[in-house]
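We include this case.
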Amino acid sequence: MARVSIILPTLNEAAALGRTLRCLSLLDPPAWEVVVVDGGSQDETAAIAQTMGVKVIVSEQAGRSIQLNRGAEVATGDILCFLHADTLVPDDLVAVIVTTLAGSTVACGGFISLMTGAETTRWSVSLHNYLKTYYAPLLFHPYLFWCKGLRLLFGDQVMFCRRADFHGCGGFDPALPIMEEADLCLKLSRYGRIRQVNRVVQSSDRRVAKWGALKATAIYAYIGFLWGIGVSATYLKRFYEDIR
């Protein structure tokens, strides 16, 4: 079976990381390795990762693209899986990933993200994020959508791809503070289809809980539309504050 390396970028994720790593410890079959790339946390994030026995790397710079690229540099698996610290995955994650990439026609995959909190499930926001995977490339890259099977995946959808393809296309753009996953999908589309697997992962609703469902959906749509017409990701980042 192909070896799957799971890479988690972290920054002050002490509240969520322990649960996520415990979830990963139950994978069957297990991941080849779990790499936590910390961006200089001021809380117990790194200590929690170390107690869980995973590989911990400290990035010289914070930023998801930079940290994910750093993790990909040290990962030794055949397949790279990029996971947020506040996202829970099914215990057959590795098997699903390996099966999805078994054929040569699929270059990259991701899951359906269901946003959940302690007392609620964000059905409307989750539905929009699911549909966005399809309508965003249809609007802005119709040729790639219809002819190349392009889908635009986002971070909480747990993206995965072959390590060789990731390095071959240049990986994440370190200059992008946001929309780096969608940008990677565009680059990986040269190697094959981008597939959204019909399986669910659970992501924290902490951003929606702070903004409210309507505001969150509006911001997600606004950022996606402006990025699609070429607005700078650096400008768009001002609308997407860090929330822990």
In short: The mean pLDDT is 94. Residues 17 and 85 are 5 Å apart (CA to CA). Strands lie at 4-10, 33-38, 55-58, 79-82, 87-88, 106-116, 160-162, 193-204.
